[in-house]
Amino acid sequence: MNVILAQTDFETSAPPHISPVVWICYFAVIILLIAAMWKVFSKAGHPGWACIIPIYNLYIMCKIAGRPGWWVLLMLIPFVNFIIAIILLVDISKSFGKGVGFALGLLFLGFIFWPILGFGSAQYQGPSAGRAPAAA
């Protein structure tokens, strides 16, 4: 087949190869995140294994944050789920005595902040949603 200028002949090109080192690092991060979320769920008094069940983990996260269980349905609506996830992460971080900045860390750098929350010294202080703010 004729190749014209910078065109590629896709019939002969091989699929991209991903290094085994990349796969090992990827799975190491996944295992670290599962272990960290398991510990967070356990600290909050819920079963740790709940973090690996796809929809049930959202329900437990709502319970940890103090939000009603029907918020799981909101997580199934496209674009609405982004807002609900941010609210849940803020409430979860407040439930462990952390602030909004920590919630942003959970959102954008979860592979760092979930282990800090799970393996660190943060203690579960009860659901933050529905709790009256502390007087200054």
Give a short overview:
The chain has about 140 residues and is mainly α. It has six helices and no strands. The radius of gyration is 20 Å and the shape is elongated.
Structure notes:
The chain is mainly alpha-helical and 136 residues long. The chain has helices spanning 20-43, 54-65, 71-74, 80-95, 100-108, 110-119.
What are the main properties of this structure?
single chain, mainly alpha, 136 residues
Overall mean pLDDT stands at 89
* Proportion of residues in extended strands: under 5%
One letter per element, helices H and strands E, the order comes to: HHHHHH
Q: How many E-type strands? A: 0
Cα-to-Cα separation, first versus last residue: 75 Å
pLDDT under 50 segments (min length 5)? none
| Proportion in helices | 55-70%
Q: Categorize the overall geometry.
A: elongated
Radius of gyration: 20 Å
The secondary-structure class comes to: mainly alpha
Largest sheet: none
Q: What is the count of helical runs?
A: 6
Which secondary structure elements does this structure contain, and how are they paired or packed?
Layout (H helix, E strand, L loop, with lengths): L19 H24 L10 H12 L5 H4 L5 H16 L4 H9 L1 H10 L17
